[in-house]
Amino acid sequence: MSEQYLYPVTPPSSVEVVGEESLYNVNRIFCVGRNYLAHASEMGVAVDKSKQEPFYFLKDPSTLIPSGSAISYPPQTSNYHHEMEFVVAIGKSGFEITEDEADSYIYGYACGLDMTRRDLQLKARETGRPWDLGKNFEESAVISPIVKASDSGIINEGSIELTVNGQTKQSSDLNLLIWSVKEIIVHLSKFYHLQPGDLIFTGTPEGVGPVEAGDQIKGKIQGVNEIELTILR
Questions:
Q1: pLDDT tens-digit readout, 154-177
Q2: Can you give the pTM of this predicted structure?
Q3: Which of 34, 59, 80, 83 has a beta carbon 3.0–4.6 Å from 204's, enabling a disulfide?
Q4: What total number of domains does the chain contain?
């Protein structure tokens, strides 16, 4: 007897893969907080890698939308921010992964936008509450097609940029990540059994800022891809 459900089953979230007909089905979305020194500074927080560990928040896979989407300005915020990110797609299961092994778990890379209701995030931060209302909401995770690591090679450096209406807002390099991709995979796999389909948004560089209805957001990462998002009027 086949299983029956009370409501229609939602199809799994997925991402296109360059050169592949099959889609990358998404399991979880991990996001690394404050992983560029300059961004941490602009958020009023000091990061000392020698004394601190990386920290994470999650976005539900249902928040994921493809590059090129046009979306409405989200509800209950008046300070809606862009955050350009380098995304790592995990390709096999692993737990307590070593640094020497870390690269072998990477399926590919993508450009991502961690769209943020900044006023709600800061309100939660000030009261010591979770960031969910500011980070984990509909259409808040934007992603480009994935470029396979077997095609791109392992990426540890390269420019990461974002423009709003043609004006550069974020410009940095992946080699300025506080915790490298290898270090993130090693650390995260101490707490979770990583699985194929897990995405890691590795953090945003400085220059985050508000967007308004009618804005056109474009980003790119050297050797990876480009990403676009339109905020509808």
A1: 999 999 999 999 999 999 999 999
A2: 0.97
A3: 83
A4: 1
